[in-house]
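worker-03 picked up job from queue 'complexes'. Input manifest follows; two sequence lines, order preserved.
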Amino acid sequence: MINIDKLKFTYNNGFSLNVDELDVKKGDIVSIIGPNGAGKSTLIKIISKILKNYTGRIMIEDKELSNYSYKEISRKIAIVPQEFNTTFEYDVESVISTARLPYSRRFSFFETQEDKKIINEVLELVGLVKYKNKPFSLLSGGEKQKVMIARAFAQKTPILLLDEFSSHLDPGYTQNLLKLVKTMAEKERKTVLAIFHDINSAALFSDKIVVMKDGEIKYQGSPKEVFKESIMKEIFDIEVYIIEHPLNKIPQILYK
Amino acid sequence: MKSTQKQGGQLPLVLFLVFISLVLIIVFASFGSVKVEAKDVFLSLIGRQENEIYKNLIVNIRLPRVIGTFLVGAILAVSGNVLQLLVQNPLADPYMLGISSGASFGAVLYTALNSIYGFTLFLGLEGFSFLFAVLSTFIVLIIARQGKKLPILSLILSGVIVSFLFNSFTTLFTVMYWKNLIHVNLWLMGSTGNLAWSSNLKLLIILLVQFFIVLIFSKELNVLAMGEEMAVYSGINPESIKMLLILTTVLSVSFTVSQVGIIGFVGLIIPHIVRMIKGPYSFISNLYSVFFGGIFLMFADFLARTLFAPTELPIGVVTSIVGAPIFIYVMRRKERL
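worker-03 finished. Artifact:
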């Protein structure tokens, strides 16, 4: 679904991203972890066409990313950003309705019946129907991210990119939203690439973990393969114990 | 904000606003140094006026001015709304891209060349100020451009810088040749007094084209008002839409300024008030900006003509004096809600 080959990208400040190889198969849920400044967000921004001028190859469903127009790629990839707010008082419904733009035709000024139906469905999914006409900027941080998840689902794309979408949320909200996204993604067989700040969440959330540092992928594999005390020490410079989650047998870390 | 306010269900209110605007055009046309009954204005309008002096006064002097003022107010308000949404800054106004400073400089330059050196330039004062308004905006756009992108912050900054530059030249010229330039400065403060049917027709075409373009791109403008990354997520190339909307706005405002001088405050406060009442949804807020902007400027012009008649105040002074308190009131009221 996403195949990256010898990707190189350099910022003006000299930081460069070098991803030799990354393959995400259809229906996979893949997490990226790594310290601040590892290039995780840069990678997501390149895949979502916000950053351009990269070299190398990025194939999205067997077509090179740069050959997609903005509109075409927005029918393939939906994004939940780290944080989102509006300057003006747009209501929740109009924020979600932007996800239907990839399918709208010129000279259709208002949402179609189908758009409205989808907007109602995703609002129900995240349990925010009653906020439909509330100004987005007045919602709490957790509610905003719920809306952004609903928005991403309304976009009806095979690929979902999550850029640390839960890093500003309390543990309850985080767990709730992670479960929601995972259930929905599995149900619709979406391919998910997610950045995580919280290492344990990443293990619970995904089948495969990609570990990045200094603009490169250092390790990738199942949670069991990459959750090693030595790797955590090398990547994050932290002392941890690795234990097994008593319920689902997934490795988790404990701080020493 | 009810969802019905976002989309359909606007027709009754819009028809009401059209009706109000027509009534106000007749009412305001009846005031002036000679008071004419509203009835006589109406008769002239439908071609039944028998008093030739009245007919001439109303059809050739009052009506073009009042209707032209409405058009100018509408263009400035829509432009202000589009720019505020586009740069996601409620403090933006149509002049932020250097249009006003460029236009002033053009006008001053023309007058200086004309009255001091006796050059007669075929473009005239209006042509010169239009050209320099467009020129200064292009300089702003070129400075602000980074590669293929037009970052909003650098757009605002270069707008400020280029404005300062042109304003300094204007001041320099004014100081050097103040005797010849006093009447330009008056012109610059803005007046809709010279609007004739011919320029009104142009203003009408501009308003219609501008409105048509923002109508076609209203969804895109909404998304851009939520941020450029949101635009990319939604499958829109932010740069091309931004450029198109900016160019439309710049050309409309530059032409308007060349006809009536610099009238401030309309493009800043009317979009604000409209969005406070109707929300930011671009189609709706642009539609209401047309009427609110037009009616507001007609009212300001009415005050400018009548308050100290027969002396006329510069309309820009009135828009600020009337506009500032309204603005403060709306803002305070909003805070309490």
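worker-03 released lock.
Chain A touches chain B through 36 residues (CB under 8 Å).
The two ends of chain A are 38 Å apart (CA to CA).
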